[in-house]
Amino acid sequence: MKDIIVSLLDQALATLKQQGIVPEEAHPAVKIEATRDKAHGDYASNLAMLLAKPARRKPRELAEALIDALPPHDAVKRVEIAGPGFINFFAATDAVARIVPTILDAGDTFGRSLEGAGQKVQVEFVSANPTGPLHVGHGRGAAIGDCLCRLLEATGYDVTREFYYNDAGAQITNLSLSVQARIKGVTPEDEAWPRDGYRGDYISDIAKSYLAGDTVDADDQHVTAAADPDDREAIRRFAVAYLRREQDLDLKAFGVEFDVYFLESSLYGEGKVEETVERLIECGHTYEEDGALWLRTTAFGDDKDRVMRKRDGDYTYFVPDVAYHLDKWQRGFGRVIDEQGADHHSTVTRVRAGLQALEVGIPQGWPDYVLHQMVLVTRSGVEVKLSKRAGSYVTLRDLIDEVGRDATRYFLAARRADSQLTFDIDLARSKSNDNPVYYIQYAHARVCSVLRRTEAADQPFDLALATESLALLEEDQEKALMNRLARFPEVVSHAAASREPQQVAQYLQDLAADFHTCYNAVKVMVDDPALRNARLALGLATRQVIRNGLSLLGVGAPEEM
């Protein structure tokens, strides 16, 4: 319908140019928006206001001229002027209803497109340190990252999901020291406990498993415990593998899988960090000062230069990040999106500056970033802070066990990434219209229930009769629902382009609201077979779009609730 209106306005604009009302050089972008108040029609355009300045005329005068110049079309019932010069279009019922067979024909592919044309995109997300269970912040990153991948795939991109394991550095040393202390009978309450040691019960679990000589399988790693309390390196390898396996199991329970697991340690083992540093030195963007090696990041937009190699010879944390992203570029990923916590904000400029300083053709502003804010978990209005297993934070597994995967995924993805999120456990568990995921899933289940009733009444759905009878869907609630259905492809496209999965979540809430309103206002099981089947078709189309939308969020679409 939008395409039809755009075409009609383009023709009207051409007529006004021929008449000399609008100058030839005026080329405003014709934009069509769905109206919020259906009393003002189904769609509106501000074209007249855009033309007012170049045409030196009042917007309402131009709106009248545009309406007079509009070619007739059977999809448009009538056109009106509103406010300062908006042009409101009322769609003919049969034109609005054409979306129903379109959806039913497309099925699971409705809303998908080939906009990405097979372009390779790598999305890195979660990338948790293998030092403990995944917390709710990791869960938010997992939900947003996975939904983003699903959206990109739905719009025609070739997506690679990647997890970057920070399995090197001080935090891994602290992990091995903590496990070793537990192995030797030291507890977090003892004075001998490592100063920066990890205190959760999971450390004790790792220690017991290590002493038992267990074997751990984690992706490409197969580590058998040496059971030697004094072999720190063996403890380190086992502890990292153990926690990698735990994180993998949590992510699988969350419905998230990865194509590539990349180890930070491989950058050092394969000499890629050293090669990156040598390249930066060769390009003349480094200097020595106070016994440290610095990168002149101010030349690339940073507020101050950054230390690359400290006096003790260790590299600062952003150096392996530069080496890692260089590796991504060399693997042929012209587009990379990193989904990370907001605490990584300070690294964005440094990593981009380092990549520019390499002078290997990486474009400015590469890679893209999506940064999510913290999650506050509440129960009965009180913040939930601790998990016995983790020791100091709420884990992703805690949430899944409390409210289920579907609610956890939806709630973590349903807000803008850059906004703080309060996860209300009581709301997520409730079976009421206040719970958005329940409200949406109930709409899907409601359609399934109606179909079961038609079968029980020996009045099965007749697609041919429904298709012939769609013009009977004349109620305002029916038209509002069909107009909402028609917007789904645009929502998917925009959500993928703007990297905002929450747009799909909000759309599904609005769609469910339109459906429930229509269901409560319009009787489906009527005696007239033509009208009954037309309304069943509308219900089926709604069910299909809800299912397609929930799939993009990784949320199930139950048939009974």
Helix count, DSSP H or I runs of 4 or more residues = 22
Overall body shape: globular
Share of helical residues: 40-55%
| Class of secondary structure makeup | alpha/beta
Beta-strand percentage? 5-15%
Report on the architecture of this protein:
With 561 residues, the chain is of the alpha/beta class. It contains 22 helices and 17 strands. The chain has a 5-stranded parallel β-sheet. A hairpin with an 8-residue loop joins strand 1 and strand 2. The longest helix is centred in the last third of the chain and has 24 residues. The model has no long low-confidence stretch (mean pLDDT 94).
Topology:
Layout: H1 2-18, E1 32-34, E2 43-45, H2 47-55, H3 59-69, E3 76-82, E4 86-91, H4 93-97, H5 99-106, E5 120-125, H6 136-154, E6 158-165, H7 170-183, H8 201-211, E7 215-218, E8 221-224, H9 232-253, E9 260-263, H10 264-269, H11 272-282, E10 286-289, E11 292-295, E12 306-309, H12 318-330, E13 335-341, H13 345-357, E14 368-372, E15 375-379, E16 382-383, H14 396-403, H15 405-413, E17 421-424, H16 425-429, H17 436-456, H18 463-468, H19 476-486, H20 488-498, H21 502-521, H22 529-552
Parallel strand pairs: 5-6, 5-13, 6-9, 13-14, 15-17
Antiparallel strand pairs: 1-2, 2-4, 3-4, 7-8, 10-11, 11-12, 15-16
Helix pairs in contact: 1-3, 2-3, 5-22, 6-15, 6-20, 7-8, 7-9, 11-12, 12-13, 14-15, 17-21, 17-22, 19-21, 19-22, 20-21, 21-22
